[in-house]
Amino acid sequence: MVGNKKIVILCTSRIFDSQVHDYIEQVNEHISQMDAVLLIFAVNADIYWKEDAIPAEASVFDSIPYDLADVVVIMDEKIKCRTVTEKVIANAQKYKLPVLVVDGEYENASSLVFDYKAGFENVVRHVFEERDIKRPHMMAGIPDNKFSDERIDVFKKVIAEYGFTFDESMLSYGLFWAVPAAAEAKRIITSGKIPDAIFCANDIMAINVVKVFQQNGYSIPDDLVITGFDGMDEVFTVSPKITTAVCLTPAFSEATVKYIEGVFNGSFTSDDIISTKVMPALAANESTGDSSSAIDNDVLLSNFNFGFYRHQDDIRMMYKIIMDMQVSGSPEEMIDRLNDRKLYDQDIMGNMLLVLNKNCFRTDAYYFDSIDNKLDPKDLTMYVNMDERRIIRQLGEGETIMSTENELFKGMVETGNPLIFNSLDYMNIPLGYVCYNYADCDNTRYTRTASTTGTLDMGIGSYINMSYQKNLVKQVNDYYEHDLLTGLYNRNGFNRFFDRILEEKKNSGIPVTIIMYDLDGLKVINDNFGHEEGDQAISALAASVKKSCPEDAFNVRFGGDEIFSVIIGKCDEAAIIKRIDDSLDAYNKTSGKGYRVLASYGICNTAFCEGFDIKKALTIADKRMYGIKKEHHARYCQNEKSMILNKK
Hints:
It is built from 20 helices and 21 strands.
């Protein structure tokens, strides 16, 4: 419970599917009158029982707030993954939550299922009762699939009652899908043994079997009858309309609401295992010679057309969003772009909350190489696009977005709207999740969640890749243009940038100061302490130079201890030299080295002009630097070694 609202968790798939959407709408309508809110955790593609290769999208179910929930409902046949369902049930049991599995049966959970076996039997019996069938045939689904095998058994049972002995020639496998079903239909036609009735284990196979037979000159139902199963909307839009069994959503939603109501009033607990069956309704239709279904074909076609044209418009907008996201300069800029109502139709993006792994935006490691398929709450950052507000903050220790302490989440729950959660993933690696909050159950918006989530996946994933690539390019450029020891420009880097400045006419006449540096006694340091210490002395000088010169100065190491600065514009070179001397003095006092880092300097003041020769200016500075170096020796009246070595 959150505030005064009870929480119903719904785990499902494809909320834009007409059956799922209608179920959500009907359940939500009833539970909202009980002061309850739906939290919908959904994947946008069926997992298809791939227990050993569960996609990252399913990580959305790891985000379920069991501690806040009052009851959990799982649409098992929509998710199509026993591993996922079993994990949700196990987690719910830890919190002693009642669990209702819709369209599936599991130990330790109540179940609500369509009686598919009886529903399919009604379809087969209807055909035998209405037609004089001589050559029956069964188009099954996937071999060794529970639902397919159950329907094969029904077929065998009914034909036996009508005096037929089953043999394997009566059976084909269309794998529950269009292409293999069409291939099997072609094989049947090629064999020349044409059935007078084909019972398909689902509607999508029936639609395609009808199409193949029609293309080969057969009339449905005059030459043969064909049936489906499941009640897809499409069977009522083809010609002829196909006889099927419709799993009516109201029957499921009413039974679900009754269960939830029982949990709320204390009639059911997590210890009560209740099993309920609902009968699919026979929808006799033209493919078996029956009258046309009463479903309004014009309404269905209008809905399909609306969805198609809206989809085309959305694709263009989503593409623009992806492009804008991936070229953003920072995560904050990316979120700002999503918030910009001038750029996009906000009905597309809607009110949403993003929760992302902060490691997504690291540039020192490639996210898609360095992360496993789990999201650690401590790594999550909240990005909000709600009611024209933007919030970007790191979640606190032990805090989750879905907690009673989170005022934003409480506010979302208090609206009473269903909250829809999708996983965000890219290259099958979780990025976080997104929560949509809509004021109604309009299927236009529900349909958009899949494409919006896909857009966010692509946009964020592309941004991560682009950011990492930019960082790699920068690293390569730095390696190519900068000295590895000191971080100063190397010869390549200096030539590239300085040539560019020389080409700019606006720089003509601007003062240029070149300061040449020489590390006093480098040979002494190398001979007495080793070349590593010599490198350390060079690095110390370079650090002092970089710190003491203006930020826009070109500080360069051409090799050895050959270091110089090019300063464009007016500068106080005496002040720069003093800062370097002070910096080196401070270094020598604290370094603990057996030597001192000292430097000599030479300065050349000039100005940009046509035919400016940087080599000539460097030569002048170099000569003056050697003059200073001689002065240092004369001033100390000592040899070079005694100048450099620290006396203990």
